[in-house]
Amino acid sequence: MSCDFLSLARPGVQKLSPYVPGKPVEELAREFGLRPQDIVKLASNENPLGPSPAVREAIAGAFAELTRYPDGNGFALKQALAAKLGVDTAGITLGNGSNDILELVTRAFVGPEHEVVFSDHAFAVYPIVTQAVGAKAVSVPAKDWGHDLDAMAAAITPATRVVFIANPNNPTGTWIERPALEAFLDRVPENVIVVLDEAYTEYVETDDVPNGVDYLPRYPNLLVSRTFSKAYGLAALRVGYGLSSPVIADALNRVRQPFNVNSLALAAALAALQDEAYLIESRRINRQGMQQLEDGCAALGLSWIPSRGNFLAIDLGREAAPVFQALLREGVIVRPVANYGMPNHLRVTIGLPEENQRFLDALKQVLSRG
Ligand SMILES: *Cc1c(COP(=O)(O)O)cnc(C)c1O
Predict the structure, then answer these.
(1) pLDDT of residue 1
(2) For residue 365, what pLDDT is reported?
(3) Cys bridge to 112: 134, 214, 228, 271, which one at CB 3.0-4.6 A?
(4) Under a CB-based contact definition with an 8 Å cutoff, are residues 301 and 279 in contact?
(5) b/e string for 234-246 if b means 16 or more Cβ within 10 A?
(6) Where does 5-50+277-368 sit in CATH, by number?
(7) Other CB atoms within 10 Å distance of the CB of residue 35
(8) d(CA 111, ligand 1 centre) in Å
(9) Model confidence over 85-128: pLDDT tens digits?
(10) Distance, CA 278 to ligand 1 centroid (Å)?
């Protein structure tokens, strides 16, 4: 007889479903007997360019120090971020991916007596970090797949401690424009922390989407989180950061693990931050690929949710799960999003032109089978 340990877990944890990541290439290769090089993965919003030469070099340079603990305060990376973004280092918190930042916020500020507000169809990590600390998750219905900030403001109660907003949002790609964000920030009580998750901000090329950094001086309750996993191309290394008032950063730093960002990640992020050419090329590939996917979907008679990220949520007009499975058999991995309340959509990451074409050809094949 063994103990049912799940029944001992905190109630919020018992009710959680584990995060489901995009299917790894190696896993699909094993399952279907495919060669990894024949598989296209457009499932996790990763940068299709591969790491930049500057990053490879930085990692090689950091290798000699592998036996030493990393700089637990990430001095060099914080200095570089502060200079680039025009913020003070005292307001920067480094994270093991920006997921780490999202978790630090609830661990530092939220308890079982509190509520956390976010939107339907928003990033799956928000309910996880909320329920992990025993708090009540309040998911607010979306408007046209995007955040309904009026409804979110109305959902704030005296028990609310944190509001999560993703801009642009994943998995929908929807974005919030400047006036709407400003009206929301003005309306939120000053003791409620607004986490503005800007994981895709480097892909935004239009000026209708606000830059959270601009609002930090005016709103001491604002925390902007960003990542090196997407446009900077370092998803495997796990490095992200939070920008906030120094008081919030101080609280986050009290609960984080002392060496949460490893040395290779610190060195790589520093190099990536200075590699402007890589970012420009990443945006170009994304802009082109977005057009290619939109044109391809239009040709197939499919609609999609307009996106400002490096991915597109495509409406199949029917249950997407069987199409996802059939695409796997063609060696194409995309992301089903039924767990986000979007059973008819597939989320497809913008890849290289030939990868996008592989996906469109496979999709056409699969859909033609009815
Ligand atoms: C990908 C993503 C992140 C980044 O996660 P990391 O832990 O930094 O890799 C954060 N928020 C959203 C909305 C994302 O889509």
Answers:
(1) 64
(2) 96
(3) 134
(4) no
(5) bbebbbbbbbbbe
(6) 3.90.1150.10
(7) 8
(8) 23
(9) 999 999 999 999 999 999 999 999 999 999 999 999 999 999 99
(10) 20
Give the mean pLDDT per block of 10 residues along the chain (370 residues): 86 86 91 92 97 96 96 97 98 98 98 98 96 97 98 98 98 97 98 98 96 98 98 98 98 96 98 97 98 98 98 97 96 96 98 98 93
Q: Does residue 224 sit in helix, strand or coil?
A: strand
Is the CB of residue 152 less than 8 Å from the CB of residue 119? yes
For residue range 129-184, what is the model confidence (pLDDT) as tens digits? 999 999 999 999 999 999 999 999 999 999 999 999 999 999 999 999 999 999 99
For residue 123, the ligand 1 atom closest to its alpha carbon is 13
φ/ψ of 138, rounded to 5, equals -115, 105
Q: Domain locations in the chain?
A: 5-50+277-368, 53-275
Q: Name residues contacting ligand 1 (CB within 6 A).
A: 45, 97-99, 123, 166, 170, 197, 199, 227, 229-230, 235, 240
Pairing state between β 345-349 and 335-336? antiparallel
Q: Which two tokens stand for residue 160?
A: 């609310």
Ligand 1 atom at shortest distance from the alpha carbon of 100: 7
CATH domain 53-275 topology: Aspartate Aminotransferase; domain 2 (3.40.640)
| Amino acid 21: pLDDT | 87
Helix residue ranges per DSSP H, the chain = 5-8, 11-14, 25-32, 53-62, 75-85, 98-109, 125-131, 149-154, 178-187, 246-255, 263-274, 276-299, 321-329, 353-368
Alpha-carbon distance of 319 to 338, in angstroms, equals 9
Own/partner pairs, 107-111, CB within 8 angstroms, 24+ separation: 107/133, 107/255, 108/251, 108/252, 108/254, 108/255, 109/161, 109/162, 109/193, 109/251, 110/135, 110/161, 110/162, 111/135
pLDDT score at 18: 84
